Amino acid sequence: MPTSPPASDVASPFATSELPSAGALVLFGISGDLAKKMLLPALYQLTKAGKLTVPVVGVARCDWDDDTLRKQAREDLVDAGVEIDEDVFARFASLLSIVTGDFDDPATFDKLKEATAGRGFLTHYLAVPPSLFTVVAAALAKAGLNDNARLVVEKPFGHDLASAKQLEASLTGYFKPDNLLRVDHFLGNTAVESLMVARFANMLLAPVWHRDYVDNVQISLVEDFDVADRGSFYDAVGCLRDVVENHMMQVLAYFAMDPPNNSTSGSQAMEKWRVLNATRPMEPADTVRGQYTGYQDVQGVTPGSTTDTYFATRLFVDNWRWAGVPFYMRSGKALALTATEVVVQLKKPPMDLFAGFDTEGTPPDLVRFRLDYDTGIRADLMVRRPKDGGPPVSVPMGVDYAQVMGRQELPYENILYGAIIGDPTCFAFYPTILECWRVAEPMLDYPHPPLPYEPGSWGPAAADDLPGLVDGWHNPGRLLFDGNPVGSPTPAD
To answer: Where's the Glucose-6-phosphate dehydrogenase NAD-binding domain (predicted)?
Structure first.
């Protein structure tokens, strides 16, 4: 039976949605890749929407001044494909300033203290390597910049269960637990949050989200690109640690959680923890690890590396709602295409009245949730082909979010806005982080070599034979509706 998280874990930002709003955002690592590709474009969009009104004080090891930062920010926006509105950029640039120096030099934090004087409550956002988390936190505390402030850290939160606990203990030695936020950018994805909304706001779907109706659930996070020039980083992490243990487990929690008692972030977080706490640890017999051909030739990869670039597994959630329903998860680099999708395969009718038309019987109904790019919901349902004697065919019906609702916020827009105003909804609940590590622990640093697979494929063939995967993987198409109009009889690839 699930046990309650320790009392010290419950006393967290997720126990309440009322956290103080910040008078300034301090962005450590403002000259780094994450800031260039994600954070600065998101901050510009927040400015455009009228949501960013506080100063953004960057901290970096570089020789920039404020003008250099603003010029670089413009270049970063252009590189990110942002169409710049000059009036918006002028407002955005006016909010930017920078403090330079080493993160282990007290003088850097003295300058930061002077730059943020009179700004009240501060949000310190650490877009820096995990090895610097405690270094920066300790320096902030020594400078007295921790008492009236919160600390926001990027993933990964540790590299296993023990290190996650150790990191939490270290950071909460400098910042109050209520003032520590942990980023998993998937939680800032509007389409991921829509999993919960679709389930609990639509009585059409709510009754079938149950073992009586669901045959299996498939969660795919697949990418058609390889590790490129990130060999050194990726070889120390691998697919399981990079995206499965965190992003995909959080998606599973959104999909499988029970309804929260209310709409507060604390109530939602407790339901996510509850479903992850009921999830069995990964089993080697239910798991396939792969490595694409050519990975060993990437600069920075250790010779003979056994790092997984592909990971597929079967999980079970042992609670009343999901007992016996397999959850299949897979992710990988250098695969057939790029997509993130949750596919719900519903059980077939108790009698197949149309078996005579197809020796394999009527295909199952599918509900697809597309979580990136062309986000939306698609149901593949059976209808009669408009020909006498023709067999039933599967047709897609659904909603393309962009067509219906227009532009959706970037994940980091929601994360940064939440970090500034004190909304913890888009951040990972510490007890759920521990449960994710617990579930993944049997497969961390697995000693056996991964299976080879060819780039452009769907991964090792052995993944098609995971236990219980009778109807196989329901591969995503390049687009949710494959470029065909809604109602086209062409199913997903």
So the answer is: 26-192
How many folded domains does the chain comprise? 2
Tell me how far apart the alpha carbons of residues 137 and 390 are, in angstroms, rounded to a whole number: 67
Q: What is the DSSP code string of 82-129?
A: ----HHHHHHHHHHEEEEES-TT-HHHHHHHHHHTTT--SEEEEE-S-
Which residues constitute the domain of residue 293? 187-408+446-465
Q: Is 185 annotated as a binding residue?
A: yes
Secondary structure element (H or E) that encloses residue 252, with its range: helix 249-256
196 lies in the same domain as 177: no
Same-domain pairing of 12 and 87 = yes
pLDDT digits (tens), the chain, 493 positions: 445 554 444 444 444 446 899 999 999 999 999 999 999 999 999 999 999 999 999 999 999 999 999 999 999 999 999 999 999 999 999 999 999 999 999 999 999 999 999 999 999 999 999 999 999 999 999 999 999 999 999 988 999 999 999 999 999 999 999 899 999 988 888 888 888 888 888 888 888 899 999 999 999 999 999 998 888 889 999 999 999 999 999 999 999 999 988 878 888 899 999 999 999 999 999 999 999 999 999 999 999 999 999 999 999 999 999 999 999 999 999 999 999 999 999 998 777 766 555 446 677 889 999 998 888 888 887 777 666 566 677 778 888 877 777 677 789 999 999 999 999 989 999 999 999 999 999 999 998 999 999 999 999 999 999 999 999 999 999 888 864 433 333 333 3
Which contiguous run of DSSP H or E holds residue 416? helix 411-421
Please report whether residue 489 resides in a domain. no
Q: How far apart are CA 31 and CA 14, in angstroms?
A: 31
Q: What's this model's pTM, rounded to 2 decimal places?
A: 0.90
Q: Are residues 193 and 275 in the same domain?
A: yes
Q: 242: annotated binding-site residue?
A: yes
Q: Is 33 annotated as a binding residue?
A: no
478 annotated as a binding-site residue: no
Residue 250: closest CA among 54, 100, 425: 425
Q: Which of 124, 159, 210, 247 is catalytic?
A: 247
